[in-house]
Amino acid sequence: MSDQAQIIDGKALSKVVREEVKARAEAFLAQHGRQPGLHVVLVGEDPASQVYVRNKERAAAQCGIAGEVHRMPADTSMETLLAKVAELNAAPGIDGILVQLPLPKHLDDQTVVDAIDPAKDVDGLHPVNAGLLVVGRPGLRPCTPSGCMRMLASVGTELKGKRAIVVGRSTLVGKPIGLMLLAEHATVTMAHSRTVDLAARVAESDIVIAAVGVPKLVKGEWIKPGAVVIDVGINRLEDGSLVGDVDYEAALPRASAITPVPGGVGPMTIAMLLSNTVDAAERRV
Ligand code: NAD
Predict the structure, then answer these.
(1) What is the pTM of this model?
(2) Which of 95, 121, 123, 245 is catalytic?
(3) Which residue's CA lies nearest to atom 17 of ligand 1?
(4) Which of 77, 129, 254, 274 makes the best surface tag, with the fewest CB within 10 Å?
(5) What would you report as the CA-atom Rg of the chain, rounded to the nearest whole angstrom?
(6) Which domains does the chain show, CATH number per domain?
């Protein structure tokens, strides 16, 4: 083991994934006479959501995916939004539908996600896709967890028989990562806010995934020497800087590989969304 962990560069790896997507999208176009199609629904004017959607739109275009954004006013009714989802479900040239979350307060996120055709659910959030993950069958997987798995693979992390801990059990991130690690034969501990003695649980783990949303919750001295650390957390401090859920500087000398924040898991999420879109297109034809 060297003195300092290998940095898992999410920017560089996301570029590799996007190149793969581009090649597959070109092959799809050549074979089927159209580009894979990704349609995004954005309700309201939330500034962060607008930035995310613009980034997705740009990344899709660069990869040869036909993207379109459906911008709807903040006071859109549930009925109108569900009618839009139904219209996109029925359109043959649309392979992926993404409704940007969170929706304005008067709209229920889950009801809208449930209305998306599971075959077009490129966010992997529909209960059918969640169920397919649980039973270990092919389906569209959530993007951030898929990005984490790709990052582990990129540094040749052995998962079979290894102890992995996932800190955070959200439906969006923690839970699906736990299931994906289990599918790769890791022995998985799911930790959360009620976990007793988190430090000891982390210290016995060969793979640490932090998806909590608490700055530097996971201390460097908790990390088992040689462990691989994936930090999903994105936390903005008062001084404007971004930090993860792991004390990165303190973990660096102990881990064998680690993702930085920013520039780690973040850039992988959009790349995996585009990858899911091509997957969905290939499965649908
Ligand atoms: P969430 O709030 O839905 O879930 C947080 C989880 O952490 C919960 O299961 C909770 O039980 C657990 N938790 C809270 N306090 C804890 C504690 N003290 N000890 C142990 N567990 C604790 O959050 P989320 O949507 O899963 O996101 C987690 C973090 O990941 C956030 O910082 C978010 O910004 C970030 N995130 C990043 C990406 C990306 O693309 N990189 C994508 C999604 C989320």
Answers:
(1) 0.97
(2) 123
(3) 193
(4) 77
(5) 19
(6) 33-118 (3.40.50.10860), 142-266 (3.40.50.720)
